[in-house]
């Protein structure tokens, strides 16, 4: 059984590419590993959704990764992450539907904001709490 696992913890960390800026900055474009980007996206907003994880069944590559998300409203989506941004590619986990023509969003915040009013509320409240904490810090 062949499985493509998108867990960056299992990637070898001694590839040598990080040290050599010629590889990182090929023809003026940053070469990003979308698996790592996807993990960062998940970690950023996991607190504001029911469930979110990088797909372990859909293929990950340097230029694309898939993220499954379940909103607080219990709606499931499969998101595609590319250099163009994030977009919904299916209305269930680990699926893609080529007929779906959904717009790209530059950020996961923008995408979730458009999909989930509950996300918007939770994220907004977290932001307010953070600002209140900063305000207290600067006043003391």
From TrEMBL:
Per the UniProt entry, what is one GO biological process?
regulation of canonical Wnt signaling pathway
Residue intervals of the GSKIP domain: 34-134
GO MF, one annotated term:
kinase regulator activity
Q: Which InterPro entries match?
A: GSKIP, GSKIP_dom, GSKIP_dom_sf
What are the TM regions of this chain, as residue ranges? none
Which cellular component terms (GO) are annotated to the entry? cytoplasm
Recorded family membership = Belongs to the GSKIP family.
Q: Give the protein name, as stated in the record.
A: GSKIP protein
